[in-house]
Sequence to fold (309 residues):
Amino acid sequence: MAVGYASGKVILFGEHAVVYGRPAIAVPVTQVQAQAKVEDAGRGQGITVVARDLGQTYKLSEAAPDDALRPIVVSTLERIGVGLEQDLTITVSSTIPIARGLGSGAAVSTAIVRALLEHFDKWLDSRAISDLVFETEKIHHGTPSGIDNTVIAFEKPVYFVKGGKMEIFWVQRPFLLVIADTGVQSPTKVAVEDVRRAWEREPAKYEELFDDIGTIAEMGRQAIEQGDIEAMGRLMNENQRLLRLLKVSSPELEGLIGVARQGGALGSKLSGAGRGGNMIALVTQETCSRVSMMLRLAGAKDVIVTDVN
Ligand code: MEV
Fold:
């Protein structure tokens, strides 16, 4: 049996503006993982998918046209040249909550690619894996920037500009993030489409907001590379102010973001598409448990602490 894993991710700076060519920064979150197992099935069985968390088992050949997993299985088998005439059982499970900004879709796809590669004893580099996953992200999300598949495939902090530039960068001083879930599902596609409509209505205003967010992402990278945690926190707060102006925040997010700051977080913001999903708070060893506890008391559905290094 072959097993592939992939971590979740959070965006530290630059979500949404990254769809419009501005830089963004994201880091992997290893505390949550997607897993895919590939096993041989009996002759003539074809490919069966078992989606554990959804309680679904189905033949890939009979999958609905908008099935979330079919495209990545098909494109991977084609890419590695083994063809679709296979007898396999692919079992997928994940601890990454769906539609909460943690990259669950890209992580599940990445885990499937890795498991298929191992099963067929093939190898692709991180760039090729990221590219395969990006193609499926386009099917699910419309106009994704590509940051999710990149950070998840490379498993490193990335500075990302759509359509090309991707740099793995140096974290001078490890830092702690508390990630708290509003419990509200928010599909990336919907938030991204809403921002696009708003941008079409008021292009000048939105371009300026994207520029400002892009500048924050640049400064955020410098702060991380210099180990200037205080500056990072201020930039997160400023990024959140701009995300609010993009209208992708929500009362639930604002509630948790405010509570984290009251608890002593150096900065806090939504992460990912917004409207729901997760927020992140930059904390120190001293403030970590207090902020985590206050977020739970304020109604966060789940709280994860991750060390970025
Ligand atoms: C989603 O994780 C981040 C967005 O910027 C969309 C994208 O980059 O594709 C909202």
